[in-house]
Known about the structure:
Elements: H1 3-22, H2 42-47, H3 76-80, E1 88-93, H4 96-107, H5 114-124, H6 126-129, E2 134-137, H7 142-148, H8 152-164, E3 173-175, H9 187-194, E4 198-200, H10 205-208, E5 212-220, H11 224-235, E6 240-248, H12 254-264
Amino acid sequence: xxxxxxxxxxxxxxxxxxxxxxxxxxxxxxxxxxxxxxxxxxxxxxxxxxxxxxxxxxxxxxxxxxxxxxxxxxxxxxxxxxxxxxxxxxxxxxxxxxxxxxxxxxxxxxxxxxxxxxxxxxxxxxxxxxxxxxxxxxxxxxxxxxxxxxxxxxxxxxxxxxxxxxxxxxxxxxxxxxxxxxxxxxxxxxxxxxxxxxxxxxxxxxxxxxxxxxxxxxxxxxxxxxxxxxxxxxxxxxxxxxxxxxxxxxxxxxxxxxxxxxxxx
Length: 265
Ligand SMILES: [Zn+2]
Ligand SMILES: [Zn+2]
């Protein structure tokens, strides 16, 4: 280590310890004071349901029993109607505890949460992130971007890029128009609502041809948005698209997740 780097690290370390003393770190979920270096208090951490193997190799939904993978590692739903994307992976099951963690980033202007949440995603998505790929976030329509001032998926993608060393194309996909909430629509209505909504920005069509993509979003509920983004990416010749999200709705929790989405959108 060079002398300059040594002193830089030492000064940053002292600065961080002083900051923790003056302004102790707080739990991302409930705001309680926590030990330096942590992101959640012990009770919020214990309430989260992290997704661990065995889970479906295609959609990332955990199996209640390993035998439900039918020996293929793929759930019955994905065997019946395989998704367009290759693999989807989520850090958490989307429930009340996950909602408390994610909503401040999504709706309460807590953009600083992105770095911490991205660390959970990098850990969950290590199998997906160990191949050279471009990270592309699910885009917001510009009207929503103006209201919210930032795209939470783009912030997560940027942070995951920093953690993993993968290149990020923040504006790789464009959302052509504002869409209705999808939660209570039928499959056919969702398809109509999302028809041609997403497009790869023309500037990147050549760059992305033949490349592997990891699509980044905060929550996977119906999967329709990720599917529409995947369709747009494959249409310009991307080799494959995998999906990495912070949390995903699971069979027993879909109604709850849909309720949250509907209430906020
Ligand atoms: Zn807490
Ligand atoms: Zn599946």
